[in-house]
Specification:
CATH class of the largest domain: Alpha Beta
CATH superfamily of the largest domain: Bordetella uptake gene, domain 1
Radius of gyration: 23 Å
Number of strands: 11
Family: Belongs to the UPF0065 (bug) family.
Pfam families: TctC (PF03401)
Strand content: 15-25%
CATH architecture of the largest domain: 3-Layer(aba) Sandwich
Oligomer: single chain
Largest sheet: 6 strands, mixed
Number of domains: 2
Order of helices and strands: HEHEHEHEEHEHEHEHEEHHEH
Protein name: Tripartite tricarboxylate transporter substrate binding protein
Structural class: alpha/beta
């Protein structure tokens, strides 16, 4: 009997040693194959631009391809849910937007920043209000007057119900004391395309996402819904300058499934940090007018948790007031 117990204990110790040894070997050899990067929004928007630029730059430092795929829906909850359920081996990475701190409050998924190993925050982006150039309102003040005279008639496109750009629209609606009709899309790029096509009247999204439309003369940005003007459009005033207290900001970064081995996490974090500072990445961000705002993993986790706590209070109140 004693010999049997000794044998069983010996087998368990050997198994544990083998597991630790093999895990260490796997971590040391990482990466050995292609890495998947999940982007939660449609091609063409800020999330897609940041995600693909980072993939292109970071793969040079990791030595394997990083392939980006777009998985849309439920304000990023579907993509983040897939990331959450992925094997924590470093071969699946996700771009995580501000919605990481919002989807639980929205009731879309039981997801919070604590469900992931956050790698870094890369960028922050203010919201902006943009309309067609042939619209009957040429200034923000004229837009406000029109909205008050035509309650519910202005169709405002967003990057999905409950997305940060939808919250920006709700904040604008509340601050102005008007009523909009919101039209959700699977990302900001499709909403901008709908605006260009004349199917809606306005969009709330980032300045960079309407850059080409404004430059071509087809669109007009009326106001930035943040604390300061954007370098892309320095002549466009903020809503605060015009007397309305609105400050809605998107942000984004990268994350791994919870429980990723430290050796693997460190290799990815190091490669992404080098990529963040690379000419390849910074050039694309500058061209797109995306403001870089680096935070390392622990600082990003603290920031995202603070945002989570804020939105857990703000979203039920804002959505409840509007009935949306």
């Amino acid at each position: 009997m004693r010999k049997n117990r000794v044998f069983v204990v010996g087998v368990l110790v050997l198994a544990l040693f083998s597991f630790v040894f093999l895990t260490g070997v796997a971590s040391a050899d990482f990466p050995e194959k292609e890495i998947l990067l999940i982007i939660q929004a449609a091609p063409g928007g800020v999330s897609d631009a940041v995600g693909r630029a980072m993939a292109a730059a970071a793969q040079e430092f990791l030595g394997v391809p990083i392939t980006a795929t777009n998985i849309t829906g439920a304000s990023g909850a579907i993509a983040m849910g897939k990331l959450k359920e992925s094997k924590p081996d470093g071969y699946t990475i996700g771009y995580v937007p501000v919605e990481l701190s919002m989807v639980k409050a929205l009731g879309y998924a039981d997801i919070s920043p604590d469900d992931f190993d956050l790698i870094m925050r890369t960028n922050i982006v203010p919201a902006a209000l943009t309309v067609r150039s042939d619209a009957p309102y040429k200034t923000f003040e004229e837009f406000v007057a029109y909205a008050k005279e035509h309650p519910g008639e202005i169709l405002v496109g967003t990057s999905g119900t409950g997305s940060i750009w939808h919250i920006a629209g709700l904040a604008l609606e509340e601050a102005l004391g008007v009523k909009f009709t919101f039209v959700p899309f699977d990302g900001a790029a499709p909403s901008v395309a709908a605006l260009l096509g004349g199917h809606i009247h306005a969009v709330t999204c980032s300045p960079s996402e309407v850059l080409s439309g404004v430059q071509s003369g087809d669109l007009r940005m009326l106001a930035v819904l943040g604390d300061s003007r954007t370098e892309l459009f320095p002549d466009v005033p903020t809503a605060k300058e015009l007397g309305y207290d609105i400050n809605v900001m998107a942000w984004g970064g990268f994350a791994l499934p919870k429980g990723t081995p430290k050796e693997v996490y460190d290799k990815i974090a190091d490669a992404f940090y080098k990529a963040f500072n690379s000419e390849t990445f910074t050039r694309v961000m500058k061209e797109r007018g995306i403001q870089l705002a680096y935070l390392d993993g622990p600082s990003f986790a603290e920031f995202a948790k603070q945002q989570y706590e804020m939105y857990m209070e703000l979203i039920p109140r804002a959505m409840g007031k509007s009935g949306k």
